[in-house]
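Write out the 3D structure for:
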Amino acid sequence: MKKSTLLIALIALVAPACQSSMQRQMIEDQDQQLEAYSQANDALRMERDRLDAERAALNEQIAFEHENNAELQSRIAASEAAFSKQNSEVEGLMSRLAGTGVNVESRGGFIVLALPSSLSFPSGKAELNKKGKDSLTAVSSILHSDYANSTFWVEGHTDSDQPKKSGWDSNLELSVNRALSVANYLIKDMKVGAESMRISGHGEWKPMADNKSKEGKAANRRVEILVIPNN
């Protein structure tokens, strides 16, 4: 009887100790789970912040691309409008200069009026003939009416054949003097302002066609008037 009583007493003493140990273990396990949950939550929060930053950067990039695309479309539209306008301008000038021998084209955004030397100058000479003067009279009317606020670059060109009996030392000299003849006629006879006139000569160095053919050489012998707007 005494042994039974002692065993019960021992169990009564041990039971609370075991219960306390189990409770501590449960608390520790719960703490570990909470820490794991907290770490996982922090990781998720960091991932969310990273994704938010990426989304914000992507939205900013998309907005930038939209802005660039709108600007590009605007520039394309403006370029197409300018191209269409200049094509119409060239066609109009060609119609107005029909029969004069003057060629009209758009080059680098500028209007270019070209007088073939074969129609404007005697062979190897720099003095304008009647046909050349008549052509320039028609050109001057357009320069006065349509391009009053412009600068006119008068540029002389030749083929690659070197002058022999013409008395010129080089094609460069001939091209400069032909350009000067055209500029002088426009200034003195057609009253185009001298302040708007510039001249240059290129000799054979800026051909329009191959100098190996007769047709190519004829195309290269020319005086061009480049119309450069001042604004």
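The chain has two domains: 24-84, 97-229.
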